[in-house]
Design a protein that fits this description.
The protein is of the alpha/beta class. The chain folds into two domains: 176 residues, P-loop containing nucleotide triphosphate hydrolases (Rossmann fold), CATH 3.40.50; 52 residues, no CATH class. The chain is 28% helix and 23% strand. It has eight helices and ten strands. Strands 6-7-8-3-9-10 form a six-stranded mixed β-sheet. The chain has a four-stranded antiparallel β-sheet with strand order 2-1-4-5, with helices on one face. Helix 4 runs parallel beside helix 5. The longest helix is centred in the last third of the chain and has 18 residues. It is globular.
Length: 269
C-alpha cells in the first residue's frame, strides 16, 4: 500500500510529488558513466529517456533504483507538499518513508520449452511458496488481481516461454505494479514488441499513470512514438544534452547531431 499520496501538477514542484536528479555523476572502473545529470519528474508524467548506445540510460535507472552508487550529486523524492527524501543517501534511516519504485527490466528470455507458467513466475516472485508444490488459491487470486491491472488475466496459466513480446511486457509490468509504486521505471519496454503490442502498451501506460498518479520514466529508441505518449523527453549522452517536449527535443540541434536524423516538424525538406 502506498504511503506517500501524490499531489496534482498545478503549481509545479510545490504542488506535486517530484523525483529530482541533480548534478548526478557516476564512475565505474575509473570511467565516467554519467556526468552532472539533472532533471525532474512529477507524478502523473511520462518522461522518455533517449540517447545513443552507451549513453548511460540503464545506468541512470540503476542509480535511481539504488543499485549503482553515485560519485557526486543527488537523487531525491519529494511528496506533494512534503520534505525531500534523499534516495541516494545510503545512511537514510527511515525506509518506511521512502517512495516505492517499480522496475521493468529489458525483456528477459525464457526457453520456449520451459514449463514455468505465469502463475508460477508470479508466485516465485511475490512469495516464498515452492512452485513445485500445488499453488494455493490465495496466490492464484493475488496473481489474477495483479494481471487485471494490465488487462492480462487470460495470461495466468500460459507458459512464460510461449508469451509474445507484448504479453511478456504485460506480465513484467503487472509484477512491477505489486504493490503499486510511486515511480515506475521501464528499460526499453518497446523492444521486441510488435506494432499492435506497442500501441496497447503505450495506451496502458497512459491509463496507469492516470489511474494511479504514477511518475513513469522509460528508455526508448522508438522516436516516432514520442509525441504520442511522452510529456517530456530527456536526451542523454553521459550528460543531459537537451530536455523538453517531444517536439522541442526532436527538432533540437542536439538531437540532429547525436542521431543524424531530422524528425522535428518543419525540418522536412
Amino acid at each position: 500500500m502506498r504511503k506517500i499520496k501524490h499531489g496534482r501538477l498545478a503549481g509545479g514542484c510545490s504542488d506535486a510529488c517530484c523525483l529530482k536528479v541533480k548534478d548526478l555523476s557516476v564512475r565505474l572502473a575509473g570511467e565516467q558513466i554519467l556526468d552532472g545529470v539533472s532533471f525532474h519528474l512529477h507524478c502523473g508524467e511520462i518522461v522518455a529517456l533517449i540517447g545513443p548506445n552507451g549513453a548511460g540510460k540503464s545506468s541512470l535507472l540503476r542509480s535511481i533504483l539504488g543499485q549503482l552508487p553515485c560519485s557526486g550529486g543527488s537523487i531525491s523524492f519529494s511528496p506533494a507538499g512534503g520534505p525531500a527524501i534523499r534516495l541516494s543517501d545510503p545512511t537514510h534511516t527511515f525506509p518506511e518513508e521512502r517512495p516505492l519504485v517499480g522496475y521493468v527490466p529489458q525483456s528477459p528470455s525464457f526457453d520456449r520449452g520451459d514449463p514455468l507458467s505465469v502463475l508460477d513466475f508470479f508466485t516465485a516472485a511475490t512469495s516464498r511458496w515452492p512452485v513445485f508444490l500445488p499453488i494455493p488459491k490465495r496466490y492464484r487470486k493475488r496473481a489474477q488481481a495483479c494481471l487485471a491491472r494490465v488487462h492480462g488475466e487470460d495470461l495466468l496459466d500460459k507458459p512464460m516461454g510461449a508469451l509474445s513480446g507484448g504479453q511478456l511486457q504485460r506480465v513484467l509490468l503487472a509484477l512491477a505494479l505489486e504493490p503499486v509504486p510511486h515511480i515506475l521505471l521501464l528499460d526499453e519496454p518497446l523492444s521486441g514488441v510488435d506494432v499492435e503490442g506497442e500501441h496497447q502498451l503505450l495506451d496502458m501506460l497512459d491509463e496507469l499513470r492516470t489511474q494511479y498518479d504514477l511518475s513513469i520514466f522509460l528508455t526508448t529508441h522508438d522516436f516516432a512514438t514520442l509525441e504520442h505518449f511522452a510529456d517530456k523527453v530527456v536526451l542523454l549522452n553521459k550528460r543531459v544534452l537537451c530536455s523538453g517536449t517531444p517536439a522541442q527535443v526532436l527538432s533540437s540541434p542536439e538531437f540532429v547531431s547525436t542521431f543524424h536524423l531530422r524528425m522535428g516538424k518543419g525540418d522536412e525538406a
